Amino acid sequence: MTRPALLALEDGRIFTGRAFGAHAEAVGEIIFNTSMTGYQEVLTDPSYRGQIVAMTYPLIGNYGVNAEDTESHRPWVEGFVVREASRIRSNWRSTQDLGAYLKENGIPGIEGVDTRALTRHIREAGAMRAVLSSTDTDEDRLVEKARRSPGLVGRDLVQEVTCAEPWEWEPKKNPGGPRVVVLDYGVKYGILRRLAEVGCRALVMPARSTAEDVMRKRPDGVLLSNGPGDPAAVPYAVQTVRRLVEDPPGGRAVPIFGICMGHQMLGQALGGRTFKLKFGHHGANHPVQDAHTGRVAITVQNHGFCVDIESLGTNDIEMTHTNLNDRTLEGIRHRRLPAFAVQFHPEASPGPHDAHYLFRRFVEMMQANDA
Hints:
This protein is α/β, with parallel strands linked by helices and 371 residues long. Helix content is 23%, strand content 31%.
């Protein structure tokens, strides 16, 4: 027997549907993701902490869930919204259906929602606070809960997803490769897999690690990972990155590569400011142009905040990539120091592989720095 479920937005808009997954209630910022596949990677991406995700593709769950396509040790979305949740899973690797996976992890889902109408509403009104519930069907009460919820601005969600202690990714692989310290703001396994594929050894360290902590590991390079929440609410991470760029302990500068929130950390460390986008960039089909070559890559994106181009000086910082949908900043590099970052996800997971070359560029920078 199906249960009713409601999605209530802070502006009073109500979407009705049928519950699947956990019989529960979730509070978060409602956003939409335009990927056609890869829902398991979306669910397990720590960058979605604090968010209720609506998938624009109408049929979700048809290939089930497996143990290989996760992006962290657990799913992080607060709630999941789909047009139709498939009960039939057709994939030889599948070990579980989507609804059972959500239920097992305490995440409520709602299906039967007009996701086209929901997406259009978010595009016009902007991402907003919401409640998804199958335990409470009082519309007025749910709207009030949404309005009282904290939202994302000013919230440090990095501390909820970062590791507690340093750990190595596949420690026996690439024993002689470049050693990369990954500052974990909510790192995806896809980033660590890509580092390993280009011959690197990755040591993942907590977000509160200081520049001294990092340099004691004698890295050949530092990667600043993706992560959730407001980048301006993580000043300790900005301070660490600023020290690594401007005054590294021991006087030995190493290449720095930032991805998504890592891009925002580097931007702030170089004097920039961040701002909240109206409805964010979430999906696997965002066109980004390289300022050097003019080449356009189709990229994977997942961020609700952005570095303000106007806040960055132009003497030492070069803008390397631009989003062709809204002309926002998608990449920077330091002209004198070995530091660069992109707002999109070059590791994909899921999505197109157009930007994989950036990991090879990072390796080349580390090799040149050691020469």
